[in-house]
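New to this. Explain these tokens.
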Amino acid sequence: MRFAIGDTDFLLDGQPHRILSGAIHYFRIHPDLWADRIRKAKLMGLNTVETYVAWNAHEATPGTFDFTGGLDLGRFLDLVAAEGMHAIVRPGPYICAEWTNGGLPYWLFTDGTVGVRRNEPQFLAAVRRYLGALAPVLVPRQVDAGGPIVLVQVENEYGAYGSDPVYLEELERMHREIGLTVPFTSVDQPMGTMLEDGSLPSLHKTGSFGSRSTERLARLRQAQPTGPLMCSEFWDGWFDSWGEHHHTTPAAASADDLDVLLAAGGSVNIYMFHGGTNFGFTNGANDKGVYRPIATSYDYDAPLDEAGRPTAKFHAFREVIGRYVPLPDLPAAMQPGGSGRLDTVDDDTAPDGLEARPAAAPHVAVRLDRSLPLAALLPQLATWTTSERVPTFDELGAASGFVLYRAEVELPDGGVLTVGEEVRDRAVVSVAGRPVGVLEREHHDRAIALPPATGLLELLVEDQGRVDYGPRIGEPKGLVGGVRIDGVEVARWTVAPLAFDPLPDAAVDELRRASRSTADALAGPALALGTFELTDGDTTDRYLSLDGFRKGVAWVNGFCLGRYWSRGPQKTLAVPGPVLRAGTNEVVVFEVHASASRGACLCGEPDLGHTEA
């Protein structure tokens, strides 16, 4: 089978072919749920699945690649093929995606000499190694080798960042050198000169937009007089940031714009079809003068919500798509008002080999009655390093999470602590065991008053997400620019990244041995543990509510769900069904500040918070 770009259409074995694609990021979904999400894309009428490839997830340390478990890109693409669908792959190297550091490994930036996203030898050498590792996954899965991949995107919205054709030419050459033969694309917003700056004549230009389809397609045609029109990021929703509202867009308006796009003969990739979740510490951030960390949920108000259920947008889009192509039959569970939960079964009498699960799982109350202060668990969580100056996360080899900074001080009259350049991103300050306050990057905090005290100065610093877009990509994390008290630099630091992803078994064992508490409140920083029971039929997707808790991280059965924060908007954390088990299950929470309650709830429905309306 051959796939090509013709004068007016994409060509599949020489015949005109319209791409109807939806974005599903394998790295944001538990791998046991991939098949379910892909099947539902087909049921909406799509014929293609698109995904980014997160370089920093696959090469967390230089030269060591991981393509197993939730990072098994080959298995994901095979599941796409098993549904009879095609695939679009976008390996970057930069992806944005509201993903930490835009997908670029933090270690690229450690020594400050690597010039990213440009024609710089060190960067290109790292990209060449990355693409070489992808070759065994991608090359044999191209459509002309019997696989699903029909298009590969080179870079990502480069016209919004730079205009270096030599860099793009080198990237294109490296993609070809590893054996990729399918057509290559670029994507940019049809605004200003982005389409021209971010592409090459040899890359097929596509657009990214979510409204005003007629106008956007006209600008795309101006930039590229021939070839098929394609919106390869049709924004049907938006992401959420902490402290803001949950973003939604009207299903009818999005469907109308999709109809205009398809009526013009365009191909489309719906971004997102299913958003998923920023599990662990993978969320990105934006900083356009004010730092805004992105929330754990990546629901995106997509046709398939974070719970994997069809929304009104799913049905509105399906109706539009049905005007242009035949649609598969929709199982009862996927009809409006159905549960939206599908499960593969062996019973040939079930429609499409699927059956409905219960509409909503019952709530399960959990009491986190075992707890220990963070200090008591440091032997299991911390490996200490000494330094005369304040090291960054990056210098410590910490990609994300928390780092605890300690120094001995004598402050008979108190003093003022200042951070030289910037706090990245949030520091909880204490002295002699007493909390003092918080320094927030979001508030541009750099100074805090310290009380009279002698003893240990501690700063618990959290990376809240590396910037994923713009010139601040790759900046170091931590206490940047040194720490001074009354103008005198603080020296002789003892520093430790906290081992949170994964949480060490030894730390959980200590929590299990802790005495049960009858107290209602929890004083942080502390870790707390609770258990709950499930039967065989109860292990479906759930949502952890931590009402009363302020800020921290949560795990279920050792799986890191990600960050919670009382400022919202989201009020629940997604718990994938495959993480749960029949019998006893465990919840562990790291609370940075304090909680008014030790009660949690394993809920049957997500709560993503208030909307703008």
